Amino acid sequence: MRLTKNWLIALIPFALMSGSVFPDVFEGTAHAQDDEMTFEEDEVETSKTKNAKPPEDTTPPTKTLQRATKLYNKKDYDSASIEFAKVINAETEDSPANQQRAEFFMGKTLYQMGYYAASLAYFDRIVELGTGHLYYGVTLKWLAALSRVLPETSGILEKIGQYDPSSLDEPVMEEVRNELYFLLGRHFYRQADFEQAISLFQSVSKEDPFFVKAKFFEGVTYVRQYKGKPAVAAFKEILVIAEERPKFYSKDDIDQFQELAWLQLARVFYSTQQFDTSIKYYEKLTQKSPDWLPSLFEASWAYFMKTNNSKALGNIHTLNAPYFEDQFFPESVLLKSVIYYKYCQYDRALGAVAEYDDLYRPLKKDLGEMLGKYEDNAEFYEYVKKVLKGKAGLPEATQRLAISALGDKTLRKTFAWVDELNKELKMLERADKAWQTTSISAEVLQELTVQQSLAQADAGKLARERIERLHKELNELGRDGLKIKYQILENKAGQVSASARGQQISGNNRLEPIVVDDEHFMWKFNGEYWKDELGFYRFRVRSKCPVKGAN
Length: 551
Fold this sequence. Notes:
mainly alpha
């Protein structure tokens, strides 16, 4: 969640920045947001399905194809792949229909062998041919199976997105229909076809394990449309499920999406300036949640908007605890400065700006040097691998900051695709020596090698974009810090000038109250952090601003 610039508004009369504050739903840190999607009109085709007729299936299969099918049924996949390749490469007298059968079975065979990327390549041929392929319809089931073992960055959603949603009405889709409703919904969501995405998410049966995921994405899609009421309804339905815990859903799914629903509800209510309700949902997340620290940071903004700055500063204090040195919230330091500015505690406000400069200006410089090391994306990917392993020779703080920037889910999925291709290439090296000499083995090697090269370049490009985004963010925050500093100095100079003229500067000395409920008690922080105290800190803040009309 990025609320940058809110603090700039805080330097003038109170207002709330308009605009979206919702990152991709699976992004867990303050830096983890997907860039806005841009596309040309002709790139948003919902289907490339061709209406061609498939070849007539009237010719019996050759003995080679019969043998290949028997070997497949016996689970002798190595031998089956060799025989199917002969049919596909027209080394037999099989008809076009039988060649298509061999092509479909080759996709299945490679899947069974664990060569999922190569399997996807074969099924992709079928998808591209559309209804002109005898096995176009049933291939969708195998794409669903591949989606369970391949990351999204493999392009699997794009392949599934080639199908018209009406394809799911076929009886053969019964076992995977709800899963495919969800996957197709994800595809249309990514294509910004939100109405179609919502329709598909809502088509998932409530008794299906994919219902919780679909309901969450339904809510997120409404958020992308700036429709708060149906978004809240979708997220709250997940909370009802979390209370009732029906047997249809796994405990892990319920727990994960309950936390994500809390977080999204907090953000929705923040965006509508319902800060009390927003805080209520932020505070439901516990230390065990991977989103707890981002929720503390975001809640500090809600407390600031409510002028409950003792709690806002307490949250910022928690974020800077030594337990979380691998997490970075640079904006929180500037928020601390603005809070002290609002209380006319100018020295402390300037101290917070200096704290930001001391920590983040050197880090910004280091990030700039990282970006200048390699222009080639594949080379940058290899460099990033060293960074992630702590072997790039970076200063300790820069190393931690870089890893935090490279930790978002989209990038992890991209790296997972490279890892999958590397795994399959190693499998190929360990395969039966005789099978390695065959044409299908050579084809698989070529496909995996090409895909590996492309995937590494894509991963390097995305990693570079993440570092560039963080570098740009720190640069913008640095400039904003200067603006805060100038405003503080100007106001501080005004006080000094008034004092020099002999005018009385009378502060109202109002101490912001700290409310403690019956379940907690208060004691003074002694400089030592304790885990059970994290998230419960409060700061005593006294205003030093002049009272209006004071002489």
